[in-house]
C-alpha cells in the first residue's frame, strides 16, 4: 500500500510526525512537499497528491494545511478524487466505508498529533462497504463527468433497491 503525503507550510508542522507514524504502521510513503515552514500555497500540494492518487501511482493520499480545508478543496478538483477533511475519527472511518474516500485531510491548527494519528488509523483500517453506497459514489462520478444521463440512469435503475 503506497501513500502519497503533502502539506503546505502550516500543515508541515504536523507532517513529519504523520510520516513517521505511517512508516511505523508499515506503509510505503512518499512526501510530495512542501519541505519547510516557508510560506507557500496549499493548492500546489493538494493538486500533486490528487494527481498521483487519481492516476493510480499511489493508493491513497494524506494531506495537511492549517485547517485541512484549502488543501482538500484543491485535491477534490482533480477528477477521480474524493477527499475528506476530518477532525475526528468517526467521520474518517465512515468516509471510507460509505464514500470510498481516497484522500484524507486534516488541519495542523485544528488537531493535535495524537488525535491526527487516531484519525489516520481509523481511516486506513476502514474498507469501502459497497452495496447501496456504490450507487452513490457512482453518482458522484457522474456529476464529475457532467453526465446527467449517466446520473439519471444510475438513479432510475437502482433507486428502489435500497431503503436507506
Ligand atoms: C495558511 O495561512 C492557511 O490558510 C492554510 O494553511 C489553510 O488553512 C487553508 O485552508
Give a summary of the structure in a few sentences.
Pfam families: LacAB_rpiB. The protein has 164 residues and is α/β, with parallel strands linked by helices. Helices cover 48% and strands 15% of the residues.
List its traits:
single chain, 164 residues, alpha/beta, Ribose 5-phosphate Isomerase B, Chain: A, 2 domains, five-stranded parallel beta sheet, 5 strands, globular, binds D-ribose
Number of helices: 7
Distance between the termini: 32 Å
Strand content is 5-15%
By oligomeric state, this entry counts as: single chain
Shape: globular
Whole-number average pLDDT? 94
The helix-and-strand class reads alpha/beta
Uncertain residue ranges: none
What small-molecule ligands were found? D-ribose
Number of strands: 5
Query: Per CATH, which architecture of the largest domain?
Result: 3-Layer(aba) Sandwich
**Which fold name fills CATH's third level, the topology of the largest domain?**
Ribose 5-phosphate Isomerase B, Chain: A
Please compute the radius of gyration using only Cα atoms.
Answer: 16 Å
CATH class of the largest domain: Alpha Beta
Biggest beta sheet attributes: 5 strands, parallel
Give the tally of structural domains: 2
